[in-house]
User: Fold this.
Amino acid sequence: DAGVIQSPRHEVTEMGQEVTLRCKPISGHDYLFWYRQTMMRGLELLIYFNNNVPIDDSGMPEDRFSAKMPNASFSTLKIQPSEPRDSAVYFCASTQNRVLRFFGPGTRLTVL
Amino acid sequence: SQELEQSPQSLIVQEGKNLTINCTSSKTLYGLYWYKQKYGEGLIFLMMLQKGGEEKSHEKITAKLDEKKQQSSLHITASQPSHAGIYLCGADYGGSEKLVFGKGTKLTVNP
Assistant:
């Protein structure tokens, strides 16, 4: 199994541009999580899905952030427009039994 | 104040030494997770504890959850350079699948 796959691994963009982060969960997992990690705030949950349905998006910072899960094998996190304070490492994680074992390698986002 | 506190923030030890990392919650835990992270990589799941007084071991790493389910410790015996990284605890307070994470403990093991 390839594990949780995220792309791109690194993204550098300019303020105001749209950014799309992608995640492919492990096959058969019905929970998918998006986390953001910064030095100041640590690891924070943005949103999570169960069976492709968003369950809790209370961690999404503001309307500039949106996440979708059109099917069981793909999810996107979009930032539009991006701002320098969005610079962080974004992790996707998946699980099938509430025990959060599998994280992706992360996408390091830099907004100039 | 932070819901979940980890200590110390960083730790430098000589290879072969034992060490302990602590994770303290302001609320009773439903479950407590331990992860290891290397720079530029994702989190690697180590252990999950749910019962008060529970103790689990994996190779030279032992994690314990206190009886009150508000504090956990991670103990490494005879540390090796391969143990170096950032150790994070994640708290499950029940009611949902959300985890709240501590800020992490950066461990350096000098050969």
Remarks:
- Chain B is about 0% helix and 55% strand.
- The two ends of chain B are 37 Å apart (CA to CA).
